[in-house]
Amino acid sequence: MVVVAYISVVLSSHRKIIEAQKTKLAEVIKSSERYKALFDHSLAGMMKFSAATWEVNDVNEALLSMLNCSSEKEVQQSLSSIPAALLDPIKTAEEKKLWLLFSAKLIDGDSYAHGVLVDITKRKSVEERVKEQAALLDETQDAIIVMEENGEITFWNRGAETMYGWTQLEAVNSKLQSLLYSHEREKEYREAMNHARPLHEWNDEQHHKKKDGKEILVESRWLIVDHTNRNRRTFLIVNTDITNKKRMEAKFIEAQRMESIALLTGGIAHDLQNILAPVAMSIGLLRNELKNETSLNVLRAVEESAQSGLQLVKNILTYGKGIRGERVELNISALLNHVLEIIERGLPTTVVVRKGFADTNWIVRGDLNQLKQVFLNISVNARDAMPRGGVLGIDVSRSSFEEKELSNYPYAQAGCFVVVRISDTGVGIPPEQIETIFEPFFTTKEGGEGTGLGLSIVHGIVKSHGGFVTVESTLNRGTTFTVHLPSA
Ligand code: ADP
Ligand code: MG
User: Fold this and answer.
1) Which residue, 148, 157, 233, 433, is most buried by CB atoms nearer than 10 A?
2) In the 3-class helix/strand/coil scheme, how is 283-344 assigned residue by residue?
3) What are the residues facing 390 on neighbouring strands?
C-alpha cells in the first residue's frame, strides 16, 4: 500500500510528460515486436503475470539481474506473495533485501497484468540514513540550528527546544535574530554575521534570550556551508549553554579570593592582637596611677579604642578560622525572639519591627552565639539602611531544596531548610554591589562607621552550618536577606 501511494505521487508529478507520451506509447504497444524490444531492453524490471493467481509468465533481463534470478520460476519464488511484498522489502536469492517500486496495469481483458519494478533500495537507505542522522541530532543537548543567509531558521533540533523553550514548529521559519537576541544584544548577532560571512567559521560566547525572557550565556559556533551547485549558503549553528559553568567558575574564583583574603587578614589580626593586648592591660595599671579627671578621661578614650580594636581583631580571627562552633539543637523561634529583644533596644523610634513568625518547634543544629551574631549583623545593617526610619521585618518558613537548586552552594545538602527572612524598607543595594557585599572589608559606611566584616562573618557562619544566604534588593525600596539553615 505504501508503494501504491508512492506511485500515485510519481504519476501526478509526471502526468504532463506521461500525457504527452501516451499516444506515442500506444503506438509502440500496438506493435508487438517493438513492444518486445522495449520489454527486453528496458532498464526497469518488467514482467507479465496472471491477475488472478499472480503466476509469473514473462520477465525481462533487467528484472532477472535485479533479483539475481535465472528463470521465471525463481522470480516467482522471490516475489512469492506480491501483495505482501508491497509492504516489505523483497529478499533476493542471497537474502539481500531490496526495496522495489512496483506498479502494475491490467491487460488482455483483465486476465493478465503488466508489472514494472524499479530498485529503490539505494534511495531508501539514503532516506533512512538521513532519518538516523536527524535522530542523532536530537539526542545531543546542544542546540543545533540551521539558518538561511536571510536569517530564517530551517532546522531546530530537540536540544534547541529544551535550551530555548521554543518548539520546532514555532522556531522554523522565524528569524534567528528576533527569536534569540534581545534588543540590547542585537549587536552580538551582527558581530557573528559579520565575522562568519567572510571567514566561514566563527565561535564565541553570546547572550541569548529564552522564550520565558531569561537570558542564558552560550558558547556559539557558526559554520557556513556552501552549496556548490546552487547559488545558496546555509549557516550551521551549534550552541552550548554555559550559564551554569560560568556561574560556578565565578563562585570558585570568588571563594578562592575570600580564602586568600582570610589568610592574609588572619596574619595581620594576630600581629594586631599582640600589639593591642599589652595596651589594654596597661590601662588598668595606669588608672591607679592617674589622679586628675582630664587624664582619666583621656585614658577612658584610649581604653575604648583599644577594646574596639580587640573586638575587631576577634571578628577577623573568627572569620579567618573558618568558624567551627558548637552543634546543639536550637529552637529557631526562641532564638529569633531573643535576637528581637536585643535589636529592639538598639533601634531608633522611627524603625518599627514587624514580627512575622509564630512560635514553632522548628529546630536547627548549630552554635547559639554564632547564629545570634548572624541575625544581629543582618538586623544592624537593616537598621543602618533606614536612617529615616522604616520597617524591619522578620519572617520564618520552611522549604525543601533539591540538589540541582543548590548547585551554587556546594556545602549545602539537599533537604528541608528553615528559612529566615530579614527585610528592611531602606536604601537598597546597587545591583553592581550585590556580589561584593559579602567580601571582608567591603563597606559603604563612612567615617569608621562600618568595618565591612559583618556580612563576611554571616556568610562564614551560615556556610559552616551547611546553609546559605541570598539577597534581594531594590534601590530606594529595601533589601531582604534570606538565611537558609538545614532543618534538624
Ligand atoms: P558594614 O556594615 O560594616 O559596612 P557589612 O559586611 O555588614 O559591613 O555590610 C557591607 C555593606 O553591605 C554595607 O556597607 C552596605 O553597603 C551593604 N549592606 C548590607 N546590608 C544592607 C542593607 N540591608 N541595605 C543596604 N545595604 C546593605
Ligand atoms: Mg554590618
Assistant:
1) 157
2) HHHHHHHCCCHHHHHHHHHHHHHHHHHHHHHHHHHHHHCCCCCCCEEEEHHHHHHHHHHHHH
3) 351
17 lies in the same domain as 139:
no
Give CA separation, 29 vs 104, 107, 115, 444, in Å. Answer: 15, 11, 14, 100
Range of the domain at 269: 246-321
- Grid cell 542523532 in the structure block, residue: 136
* Residues 359 and 459 occupy one common structural domain: yes
386 and 282 in a common domain: no
Distance 328 CA to ligand 2 centre (A): 26
- How do the pLDDT tens digits run along the chain, 488 residues long? 233 334 333 444 455 666 666 766 666 566 667 677 778 888 888 988 888 888 888 899 888 888 888 888 888 877 765 555 455 566 555 566 778 888 888 887 778 888 888 888 888 888 888 888 777 777 788 999 999 999 999 999 999 999 999 999 999 999 999 999 999 999 999 999 999 988 889 999 999 999 999 999 999 999 998 877 667 889 999 999 999 888 888 777 777 777 677 667 777 777 888 888 888 888 888 888 888 999 898 898 888 888 888 887 877 776 655 556 778 999 999 999 999 988 888 889 999 999 999 999 999 999 888 898 899 899 999 999 999 999 999 999 999 999 989 988 888 999 999 999 999 999 999 999 998 898 878 899 987 778 888 898 888 889 889 999 999 999 999 999 999 999 98
- Number of structural domains found in the chain: 5
Q: What is the pTM of this model?
A: 0.50
Cα of 320 to ligand 2 centre, how many Å?
17
**Which ligand is closest in space to the CA of residue 456?**
1
Pocket of ligand 1 (CB under 6 A): 377, 381-382, 385, 424, 426-429, 437, 442-445, 450-456, 479
